[in-house]
Amino acid sequence: MFGLSGKETVEKFDLANYNHECRSIVMRYREEWRHAFEKLDHVPTLTKTMDSSFMDSNWWIFKQLFDKVMAYQGHGVMPYSRRMTTTPRRIEIIRM
């Protein structure tokens, strides 16, 4: 996706560049999602995880669940890419 081929290139790709690339990808596909929903005759409020207000709402909801002991810490299986020496994204796992 970012043209990264190993651990060294991932480490050199700093956080600012990563955030910039992710933001541009979200914005690139925003209109395609809107158009797809219009075809289904459904126009939702298109929220993006990069929006602070959206994420603040999610953290608030999670805190409410946690305070009511409705959320817990658990363990799950996390796939690992030896080639990239990192965990793959969900979409990469689906494509495998």
From TrEMBL:
InterPro entries in the record: aa-tRNA-synth_Ia, Ile-tRNA-ligase_type2, Rossmann-like_a/b/a_fold
Gene3D superfamilies, per the entry:
HUPs (3.40.50.620)
This entry's Gene Ontology molecular function terms read: ATP binding; isoleucine-tRNA ligase activity
Example GO BP: isoleucyl-tRNA aminoacylation
Q: Which residues form a coiled coil?
A: none
Output the superkingdom of the source species. Answer: Eukaryota
- Give residue ranges for domain Aminoacyl-tRNA synthetase class Ia: 3-92
For this protein, the record's PANTHER family field holds: ISOLEUCINE--TRNA LIGASE, CYTOPLASMIC, SOLEUCYL-TRNA SYNTHETASE
Name by which UniProt lists this protein: Aminoacyl-tRNA synthetase class Ia domain-containing protein
Organism field: Xylaria flabelliformis
